[in-house]
Amino acid sequence: DAGVIQSPRHEVTEMGQEVTLRCKPISGHDYLFWYRQTMMRGLELLIYFNNNVPIDDSGMPEDRFSAKMPNASFSTLKIQPSEPRDSAVYFCASSPGQVLHFGDGTRLSIL
Amino acid sequence: KQEVTQIPAALSVPEGENLVLNCSFTDSAIYNLQWFRQDPGKGLTSLLLIQSSQREQTSGRLNASLDKSSGRSTLYIAASQPGDSATYLCAVRDYSGNTPLVFGKGTRLSVIA
After folding, report:
1. Is A85 helix (H, G, I), strand (E, B) or coil?
2. Cα–Cα distance between B46 and B65 in angstroms, integer?
3. Could you tell me if B64 and B35 are in contact, meaning their C-beta atoms sit under 8 angstroms apart?
4. Fewer CB near the terminus (10 Å): N or C of chain A?
5. What is the pLDDT of residue A91?
6. Does B54 have pLDDT greater than 90?
7. Are A33 and B49 inside 8 Å of each other by CB?
């Protein structure tokens, strides 16, 4: 299995632009998670899905952030408009139950 | 609200040493606890999972213990190697079992040859 695939690996964009991060989970995994990692705050859960349905989005910082999972093999995390404080590494993870499998992350820099 | 703390934030040891990484959590009503490894520029890789009813789990040179009542877990690494250099994160899942993991900030380990 190829594992969890995230794209792009790196994104540099200017403040105010729309950013879309993509994730392909491992086939057969029912759960999909979006995390954000910074030095100051560590790993923070943004949102998670079960069978493509959003279960808990209480970690989404504000309305500028949105996430979708249109089918079992694809999810997106969108930031519009982006701000410098959104700069972080964003991880997608999938799970069949208890053990999480992480992608290699998208390193996002907002100038 | 569950909080997970890992001390120290960074640790440097010479190759061959046995070492212990510490993790503490504020709410002892956990479902399980997991230890992860993160290499620079990479995602997290699960190392060991301990269910709340278990005291320890072992995988090769790694041994994780859990003392739920005191809110503590340790990860023991035997005969450390330079390839063990990475950040190690601890995460707990609360008692319902369906809640997401709460992560500590990790301990950055450097094993010097």
Report:
1. helix
2. 15
3. yes
4. N
5. 97
6. yes
7. no
Check CB contact under 8 Å for B43 and A91.
Answer: yes
Tell me which chain B residue has its CA closest to the CA of residue A92.
B43
Q: Which residue has the tokens 């190759």?
A: B15
> Three-class SS string for chain B?
CCCEEEECCEEEEECCCCEEEEEEECCCCEEEEEEEEECCCCCEEEEEEEECCCCEEEECCEEEEEEHHHCEEEEEECCCCHHHCEEEEEEEEECCCCCCCEECCCEEEEEEC
Nearest CA in chain A to B32: A98
How many CB atoms neighbour CB B69 within 10 A? 7
Please tell me the predicted confidence (pLDDT) of residue A74.
96
- Using the Cβ of B34 and the Cβ atoms of chain A, whether some distance falls under 8 Å is answered with yes
Closest alpha carbon within chain B to A97: B98
B105 touching chain A per CB within 8 A:
yes
**Under a CB-based contact definition with an 8 Å cutoff, are residues B81 and B65 in contact?**
no
- Residues B41, A53: Cα–Cα separation, whole Å: 29
